[in-house]
């Protein structure tokens, strides 16, 4: 199946795109290509530089098989696979910025991206300011003549504010800046930021694309206008993703649609159940009707992800420990997107500067995997009992 059929249904794209069995002796999958050196037959060939592959660092058939799928799903001009979600963010930012420029980042954005801006871009002469994730068209008031990039993450993966991508895009473009959106939560199945006006979409492929907690990857998909700058920076920095990792991404993508459907239904089931539990003050899930951004989510998304938050009545650290230290199915860990359920206590204070986090109580982030739902509820229920007993 070629890229020209990328208007096919999502499930069909995920099953057929990026495979060429006739080029692989009939084997169904594009194999792992490992290789640095690519050979040229003649002096004319090396002078022409027109072979499909010139040197392994720019990619190979395995990495291209992944890029083709994400390009089709995002409705992008092209996509580049990079070694991690963080690399996708840093390359995307650097593709827009030079010394003397200004950057605006949503206050809910992934914290290591903030650290890159504050700890590295500052040294390179770029200023960074943070904005209220719910600012919508108010962003235009923050735009300066030197603002060249806006980074949004919708919803924020700790606090779950949905951002108004069309409004942010309009404000960014009016000021001559590009809008970068981290779309890891929804995946391109449930949101396509380029169609909403974004210029660059990044994914932590590590999460939903890989889906099994066993590899790192990131993707950067762009409009035609933004592509050259992204690919230029990526190649200058020498970022390369191995065929082995690309193969794991490709394998994960084949089941992305059915996994997302299951994650969505299961996460919503647990979110609604949590709303009924004593001691739960709030459940932060944009697909729930009482979420403050529910209308925006409904307008711009066609589904919801595996990840959401909840807030428990205030209690000391010992109560949090009583909850998380004795769980039998949920485990604690960074990352998410795998088959296994995770629960993480979250401290938000450090990561907020534009709009301080005012919620009373303890915030937790959950990723709902594929265990039996009643088993998961029993595990959480016992944890909530321990929390309340330790208050
Ligand atoms: C995990 C994550 C990233 C970073 O991905 P890595 O592959 O871990 O570098 C970026 N954005 C979001 C929303 C994430 O959850």
Written overview of the protein:
GO terms for molecular function: cysteine-S-conjugate beta-lyase activity; pyridoxal phosphate binding. Keywords: Lyase, Pyridoxal phosphate. The protein has 13 helices and 11 strands. The chain has 391 residues and is of the alpha/beta class. The strands form 2 sheets. A 7-stranded mixed sheet has the order 1-7-6-5-4-2-3, sandwiched between helices. Strands 8-9-11-10 form a 4-stranded antiparallel sheet, with helices on one face. α7 (187-190) links the parallel β5 and β6. α3 (61-74) runs parallel beside α9 (243-253), α4 (85-96) crosses α8 and α12 (317-324) runs antiparallel to α13 (373-389). The chain is globular. It starts with 9 loop residues before the first helix and ends with a helix. Mean pLDDT is 96; it is low at 1-5. The chain binds pyridoxal-5'-phosphate (PLP). Pyridoxal-5'-phosphate binds at residues 84-86, 110, 153, 157, 182, 184, 204, 206-207, 216, 218, 335.
Report the uncertain regions: 1-5
Distance between the termini: 58 Å
Order of helices and strands, N to C?
HHHEHEHEEHEHEEHHHEHEHEEH
Would you count the extended β strands for me? Answer: 11
**CATH class group of the largest domain:** Alpha Beta
Q: What is the helix fraction of residues, given as a range?
A: 25-40%
CATH architecture descriptor of the largest domain: 3-Layer(aba) Sandwich
What is the 3D shape?
Answer: globular
């Amino acid at each position: 199946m070629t890229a020209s059929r990328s208007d096919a249904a999502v499930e069909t794209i995920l099953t057929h795109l990026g495979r060429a069995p006739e080029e692989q002796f009939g084997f169904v999958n594009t194999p792992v290509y490992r290789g640095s050196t690519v050979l040229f037959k003649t002096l004319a060939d090396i002078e022409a530089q027109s072979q499909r592959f010139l040197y392994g660092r720019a990619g190979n058939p395995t990495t291209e098989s992944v890029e083709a799928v994400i390009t089709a799903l995002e409705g992008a001009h092209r996509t580049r696979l990079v070694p991690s979600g963080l690399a996708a963010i840093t390359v995307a930012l650097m593709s827009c910025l030079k010394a003397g420029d200004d950057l605006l980042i949503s206050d809910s954005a992934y914290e290591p991206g903030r650290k890159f801006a504050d700890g590295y871009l500052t040294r390179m002469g770029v200023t960074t300011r943070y904005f209220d994730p719910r600012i919508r068209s108010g962003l235009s008031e923050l735009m300066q003549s030197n603002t060249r990039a806006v980074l949004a993450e919708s919803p924020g993966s700790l606090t779950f504010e949905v951002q108004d991508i069309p409004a942010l895009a309009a404000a960014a473009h009016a000021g001559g800046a590009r809008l970068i959106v981290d779309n890891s939560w929804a995946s391109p199945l449930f949101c396509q930021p380029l169609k909403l006006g974004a210029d660059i979409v990044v994914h932590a492929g590590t999460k939903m694309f890989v889906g099994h907690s066993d590899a790192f990857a990131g993707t950067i998909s762009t409009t035609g206008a933004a592509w050259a700058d992204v690919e230029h920076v990526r190649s200058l920095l020498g970022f390369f993703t191995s065929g082995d990792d690309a193969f794991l991404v490709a394998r994960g993508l084949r089941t992305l649609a059915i996994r997302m459907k299951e994650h969505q239904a299961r996460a919503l089931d647990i979110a609604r159940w949590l709303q009924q539990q004593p001691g739960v003050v709030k459940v932060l899930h944009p697909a729930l009707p009482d979420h403050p951004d529910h209308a925006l989510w409904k307008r711009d998304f066609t589904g919801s992800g595996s990840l959401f938050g909840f807030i428990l009545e205030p209690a000391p650290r010992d109560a949090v420990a009583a909850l998380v230290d004795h769980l039998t199915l949920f485990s604690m860990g960074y990352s998410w997107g795998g088959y296994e359920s995770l629960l993480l206590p979250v401290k938000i204070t450090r990561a907020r500067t534009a709009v301080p986090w005012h919620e009373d109580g303890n915030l937790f982030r959950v990723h709902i995997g594929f265990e039996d739902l009643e088993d998961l509820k029993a595990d959480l229920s016992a944890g909530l009992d321990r929390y309340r007993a330790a208050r």
